[in-house]
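Sharing in case it's useful to others searching the archive later.

Someone asked me privately for the predicted structure of NADPH-dependent F420 reductase, so I'm posting the question and my answer publicly. Question first, with the sequence:
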Amino acid sequence: MRVKKPNSIAILGTGNVGKALAAAFSSFGYKVTFGVRDLENYSAKEWIADHPQISVERVADAVDDSDVVIACFKPEGLNEMVKHMGDLENKVLIDAMNSIMNKRTPFETTTHALEELTNCKNVVKCFNTTGANNMARPTYGRQSLDMFMAGNDSYSKEVARQLAKDIGFTDCYDLGGSEVYVLMEQLAMVWIRLSRSELGRDFGFKLLRR
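And my answer, the predicted structure tokens:
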């Protein structure tokens, strides 16, 4: 499926993943805006001052001005963040979060929660299965890592695949629909567990085929 390339991305979450994705997408020509609840007090203020090509707006304004919204904030703030998001009906909403380590809602995953709590029909889980260091630099020698995704909307998945490939991932493999959101978070846990071993964080997943 060929999709219209989105031009603008709102990133909700100013932690390591949010900053890595913002820098990556911005460097490839996307208009990137951080959506924050408090314009006077947010964690990445100094970092953004060093990246003037990336703008900051209130959450609802950042969402309204963008084609794609990437959620990568702390999962425990999900209910409160949803109240600020505004109208997501015609947006592609990418969930890059994981709740499996810190389950604070009755939902199985953050993606189930976003589907239930927003009016967005174009939800896809992606960019959750590796660390921020790999979002910023997915290339290892002559090869690049692969990304994975899941969701019920084919258009949203094609957008996610395109975005992943644009920032350097070789491919973005479709694992299925909402029935595999839990699997996606478990895959993230595999990476997290290994990253705490002697491997450290400089490794990632690559699918090899004969």
